[in-house]
Amino acid sequence: MKTLKIVLLTACMGTTLPTMAQTTNPAGFHGADATKSTYRAVYQLDNEEPEKIKGTLRNIQNAISDPRLKGKLQLELVVHGAGVAAFKKESGYEEILKKLQDQGVILAMCENTMRERKITKDELFPFLSYVPSGNGELIIRGQDGWTIIHP
Length: 151
Description:
Layout: H1 2-22, E1 39-45, H2 50-65, E2 73-79, H3 94-102, E3 106-110, H4 111-117, E4 129-131, H5 134-143, E5 147-149
Parallel strand pairs: 1-2, 1-5, 2-3, 3-4
């Protein structure tokens, strides 16, 4: 039995080592191939720090600009908790948010957060969509096969 385990282990190593060796040349690696027709991701924003907000919005734009994903993306930004700061009219993010929306990004605001923080739709950008629960949206999207990204 011990001999069989050694033979199987050696056989497995023989099939994985060449694969591992292929990735050791960094100059030859140019990222994964986007072989699917559609990629779906939902970005979660629950932080009010300007650097976190800017970083999240930049990450979304970077995904849109990735030539491998051109014409293959469905994206959503779910904002809840402290992240509501990004969707407030005085936030200074209106231009970039509109640009993302014009590129097909769904901008979804959590109604639970609004209720808990006593925020009205009048305080937020008029071009937003609303979901009953940010966490619920993430759960549903995740179960539907969307990649959840929390920068």
